[in-house]
């Protein structure tokens, strides 16, 4: 039986850390569950909206796809060449499917680029540290699928390369 106050304090600290870790795991699970529910609702809404594509950035509005651009009410606007709704849907579905085979966490979509750079749609996973989707004016296809662990195993990872 422990009676030393120092040992009791250490055990109490360890217990608090374990409780905190458990809470973080529960929060991640709840976020994942919420994301899955949002995806299901978006899919059901998409069926009602005659197969429109839900914006991967805001996950609320539908994308408008033309031959020369993709845009959403949330502010997403990317110039493209020869893009169709079918091509974009297939690109997003294939990328998300491939990601789900490799990682259980939910990816995030962002728009990058700026003054001199082309606007790009990037799909990243903060947990798996990967960059999967690169959609720009000149490049309407998936980029190579790279993960930090695989780059390190291949010996091709250099600091600052991601």
UniProtKB/TrEMBL annotation:
GO molecular function terms noted in the UniProt entry: zinc ion binding
Boundaries of every RPA-interacting protein central domain copy: 3-43
Entry keywords, A to Z: Metal-binding, Zinc, Zinc-finger
Domain RPA-interacting protein C-terminal: from-to ranges: 54-127
Bilayer-crossing regions: none
One GO process term, biological-process aspect: protein import into nucleus
Xref: Pfam families: RPA_interact_C, RPA_interact_M
A GO cellular component entry from the record: PML body
Coiled coil start-end: none
Matches recorded under InterPro entries: RIP, RPA_interact_C_dom, RPA_interact_central
Source organism superkingdom: Eukaryota
Name this polypeptide is given: RPA-interacting protein
């Amino acid at each position: 039986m422990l009676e030393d106050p120092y040992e009791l304090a250490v055990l109490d600290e360890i217990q608090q850390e374990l409780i905190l870790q458990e809470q973080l795991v529960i929060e991640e699970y709840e976020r994942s569950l919420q994301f899955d529910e949002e995806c299901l609702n978006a899919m059901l809404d998409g069926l009602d909206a005659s197969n429109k594509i839900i914006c991967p950035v805001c996950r609320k509005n539908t994308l408008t796809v033309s031959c020369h651009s993709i845009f959403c009410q949330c502010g997403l606007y990317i110039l493209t060449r020869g893009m169709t709704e079918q091509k974009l849907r297939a690109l997003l579905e294939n990328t998300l499917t491939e990601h789900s085979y490799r990682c259980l966490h939910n990816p995030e979509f962002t728009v990058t680029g700026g003054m001199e750079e082309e606007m790009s749609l990037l799909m990243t996973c903060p947990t798996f540290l990967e960059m999967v989707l690169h959609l720009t004016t000149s490049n309407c296809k998936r980029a190579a699928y790279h993960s930090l662990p695989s780059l390190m195993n291949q010996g091709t990872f250099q600091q600052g390369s991601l």
